[in-house]
Amino acid sequence: MAKIFYDKDADLDILKGKKVGIIGFGSQGHAHAMNLHDSGIDVMVGLYPGSKSWSAVVDAGIAVGTVDDVAKSADVIMMLVPDQVTRKVYEDHVEPYLEAGKTLMFAHGFNIHFDQIVAPADVDVSMIAPKGPGHLVRRVFTEGGGVPALVAVHQDASETALQTALAYGRAIGAGRSGILETTFREETETDLFGEQVILCGGITSLIKAAYETLIEAGYQPESAYFETFHELKLIVDLLYEGGMEYMRYSISDTAEYGDYTRGPRIITSETKETMRTILKEIQQGSFAREWILENQAGRPQFLALRRENAAHPVEQVGKEVRAMMSWLNTNKK
Question: Is the dihedral of CA 163, 29, 117, 72 positive or negative?
Fold first, then answer.
């Protein structure tokens, strides 16, 4: 079982007298910066000149400067830009200013685990990875709670890297609910695996296949959408709140029986074997190499797949059906 740390295990004073630099002000960046600021930490956000987020940082009452400015002055530097640009941002704007005794932090282990970034030996390298999107990290913090997070230490030059990471985790609210100890390898590989086989890739592929099956059998697109897409949230919410048992308690006996008897016919031993293959691709680094090369080539396959999936019929009928639901903020995207 994982070791779990809480607020009582983290000393916020470790960060007092230090400047924490947040590189990026996107989903995670804005939440980390604002939570740190509210926790009394001296925080500064690093952005590229002309960034549209610059005024948002100023409006939040937080210091802002270029990435170079922040890397120069910060004692703790948290990298919160997308995986595919992290290496370049690091090499061009952060690495030149990494001095002995500084801490380099991440919220995802991809670039460290796959050797895209190799920090100087006299710098601490650690991770605090909240298990939720940035808007949730911020909202739950303001409500007095915290989103759980993972903590890992890759390089412990100071011999206090874990304590610094835990202090950071407490400052963004994670210590209120629990910070689970892990490794960069475990976080990276399990995160990629979950995204690919269920949370993103698995779910969207199941939805499209189920929708297409109903349409090919002659059912109305709107009915197919409701049954294969819309109601998914209702089930996921039940799973999220109380696990499989609570979900099955909440649905009809007919649905529960179909769950037990038909689900294993969809997710078969062959499906699980494919999952093992995908996990090996992640573990052996072939997925990482593929993604890195895709970005170096200008992302032609990625962009083509994005266009192709955006044009899928389930997406088109979905827009029409969602327009019927006044409680949805259809302008959010």
Answer: negative
pLDDT tens digits along 97-112 = 999 999 999 999 999 9
331 CB neighbour count, 10 Å cutoff: 5
What is the distance between the alpha carbons of residues 197 and 282, in angstroms, rounded to a whole number?
12
DSSP letter assigned to residue 97: G
Enumerate long-range contacts of 53-61, CB under 8 Å, 24 or more apart: 53/25, 53/26, 56/25, 56/30, 57/25, 57/33, 60/30, 60/33, 60/34, 61/37
Order of strands, sheet of 103-106, starting from the edge strand that comes earlier in the sequence: 4-5, 179-181, 149-155, 124-130, 103-106, 76-79, 19-23, 42-47, 63-66
Contact in structure between 80 and 24 (CB atoms under 8 Å):
yes
DSSP 41-95: -EEEEEE-TT-TTHHHHHHTT-EEEEHHHHHHH-SEEEE-S-HHHHHHHIIIIIG
- At residue 204, the pLDDT reads 97
**To the nearest whole number, what is the mean pLDDT of the chain?**
96
**So which residues are the catalytic ones?**
108
Reported as a single tens digit per residue, the pLDDT across 14-69 is 999 999 999 999 999 999 999 999 999 999 999 999 999 999 999 999 999 999 99
Q: Residue 150: count other Cβ atoms within 10 Å of its Cβ.
A: 26
Nearest to 57 by CA among 82, 31, 79: 31
Give the integer Cα–Cα distance in Å for 312 and 48: 36
Q: Which amino acid is at 71?
A: A
Within 8 A by CB and 6+ apart from 206, the residues are: 266
